[in-house]
Amino acid sequence: MSSVPPASPGPSAAERLATPAQFVKGIGPQRAELLAKLDLHYARDFLFFFPRAYQDLSELREIDQLEEGRSASVVGIVEEVELRNTGPGKSLLGMLLRQGTRFLRCLWFNQPWMRQKLEEGRRLMVSGEPKLEGLRWEMIHPRIEPLAENEDAPAGRILPVYPLTDGINQNQMRRMVGGVVESLAELVDDVFPEDFLAAHDLWPIRRALPQIHSPDDQASLEQARRRFIYQELFVLQLALALRKYRLEHNRAAPPLPTSSKIDARIVRLFPFELTAGQRQTIDEICADMARPHPMNRLLQGEVGSGKTVAAMYAMLLAVAHGYQAAFMAPTEILARQHQQTLSRALAASKVRIGLLTGTLTVGERADLLGKIAAGELDIVVGTHAVTHAVAQSGVEFAKLGLVVIDEQHRFGVRQRAALKKAGIDPHYLVMTATPIPRTVGMTLFGDLDVSTLRDVPPGRQKVHTYWAADAQRLKWWQFFRKELDAGRQGYIIAPLVEESDFVEGVNVRELFEVLSRGELANYSLGLLHGRMTPSEKDAAMDAFRSGRTQVLVATSVVEVGVDVPNATLMAIEGGERFGLAQLHQLRGRISRGSHPGYLCVFANPQTDESRDRLDAFTKTSDGFALAEIDFRLRGPGDLFGTRQHGLPPLRIADLARDTAIVEEARRDAQELVAVDPELTTPRFAALRRMVLFRYGEALDLGDVG
Length: 705
Ligand code: ADP
Ligand code: MG
Fold this sequence. Notes:
Elements: H1 13-17, H2 28-36, H3 43-47, E1 53-56, E2 72-87, E3 90-99, E4 102-109, E5 123-128, E6 130-133, E7 136-140, E8 143-146, E9 158-161, H4 170-184, H5 194-199, H6 205-213, H7 218-249, H8 260-267, H9 276-289, E10 296-301, H10 307-320, E11 324-329, H11 332-345, E12 353-356, H12 362-374, E13 379-383, H13 384-392, E14 400-405, H14 413-419, E15 427-432, H15 438-444, E16 449-453, E17 463-468, H16 473-485, E18 489-493, H17 501-517, E19 525-528, H18 534-545, E20 551-554, E21 567-572, H19 580-588, E22 597-602, H20 608-619, H21 623-634, H22 659-675, H23 685-695
Parallel strand pairs: 4-7, 10-15, 10-16, 11-13, 11-14, 12-13, 14-15, 17-22, 18-20, 18-21, 19-20, 21-22
Antiparallel strand pairs: 1-9, 2-3, 2-5, 3-4, 5-8, 6-7
Helix pairs in contact: 6-7, 7-22, 7-23, 8-10, 9-10, 15-22, 20-21
The chain binds adenosine-5'-diphosphate and magnesium ion.
């Protein structure tokens, strides 16, 4: 085996931790190449290569001590193995494990490859749930652990289960990681000072490292995991708190205070009284915008709660001070709707509004950009994509005071960091109607102040939500027609079969054909889907908005933001294909007027999760509650994760599972930044380096001294 010859004074701890994998004892160049695929390059990488699961062998039993249904491990010798074909592609593998004079039968269905691990005469440990079949104990699909001739069963141990790559099996991986942990864990320095660890009930790293890989018992495993989950979340929350502090203190934005005169002039434009929630939100926005530092505020509110009004107020406040405002929407349909709403409200004023979308001709676009740069437009409405491209291409607003980003829960912290330009910042208002789970909000929007609109404008009616089987269609369409006859309008939503526009078009068009010849033959139907040109989409939306078409057959392009108060009916086909947040967004389309809404979801759920989701949807109309349910149903994973927001993925923490630690870490990080904003205290130097290393680039924190 190759290994580095010891240099004369002996390598330092840092050098030993940085030993390339191939020189680590028991690895060598060939394995090192395989391990590189798992991002294991240096000795220290193995220390932080955490198990993805554990196998609890602490229940080691004799065969006659087994209890039905209680997981246990049994050590014995493979007595007999038989593999039978039981049909095309089907097999049954049986193994008899002998322990003294007793036998345990193990069965594997359709796993013929297990045969090769079950050599007769071999000593094994099997772990699983025992069942008494007649007089014999049986385990179905037990885990197996080969043991050497005189090797003790790893009694009372919890074995790590690591991610693997081709050519390296679990036992080899355990030995390699175990070896590194044993020899190097004690060289790792803690990023936390000792008193901090004690005060926060955290294990020192030198104690936690061995226990996370090879825990003594469940309690130690919990403590070790807590230590690393906390560290990961704390570092992230520190980065966010640092960014927030900097935005609030180090960056300049034009102070744009409101006054009773400005307020009266703006409020007059709205054809209704503001709700208490809107008033409060507007007050919070005004307080932010009055400061000489940029506002960074997230406005979250239930679908239909009237967020646009708050955005309009903020934009007009900027305009009142001679500044420009940019209003970004996720779709062209929504951008155009906002432009129309604004134009209507501001028809009698001198405010100049421009619409910047992907459909402008080259000439129109150049003309518009010219006006933006010359300050000849006050409010520019555009799609996220286009506005972002414009910002990147260096087109300057003459005097940008405010950026509003509508309906964009995907527009995370990283994207916002990228939008900022040198010099004076605009104020930022981000709006979302997709209520996000608390812990996700604390992370992806962890650098923002949050306003929440909980009330909806008065007079809103409930949406009655049904989940129906095919048998109920006749009755539903009867009801649908009756409501249309009474003057209402409705949406019919077709699912995306695949993420392909082509299929999308086919699907929704077919539905359109079937309905216009069948159930809705005597009504005027419109069609809206992603394959249509923007002007076709506009025409379809205009016809629906004005009531010329009574029914809009559409894909989920209408999901976000579309506002047609007279539409109170909706049917959703293939409901099992929609996520909970998406269903709730769709429902939001028909809860905007003074008539009650009726929504019927046709769905054939194939999984429990899908069934639970539909069940929750019909029973709960509170978007915030639904967001939490959705999050729990989805379980761990990166769906709401950090990666799609441009942040490094979390390695051990899980925002859905570790909610209590997220809150704890956030509180602690904010406390620390409040007393030591730049983390200049020497005792936090290591922590600070870690924050910058991990998030410096993503969160634009690089310039710390
Ligand atoms: P969202 O929060 O989902 O973006 P919108 O801003 O589109 O909601 O508002 C939904 C509807 O409610 C719009 O038709 C809007 O004109 C109306 N609306 C907003 N505020 C009020 C209010 N205070 N009183 C009555 N209607 C309102
Ligand atoms: Mg909206």
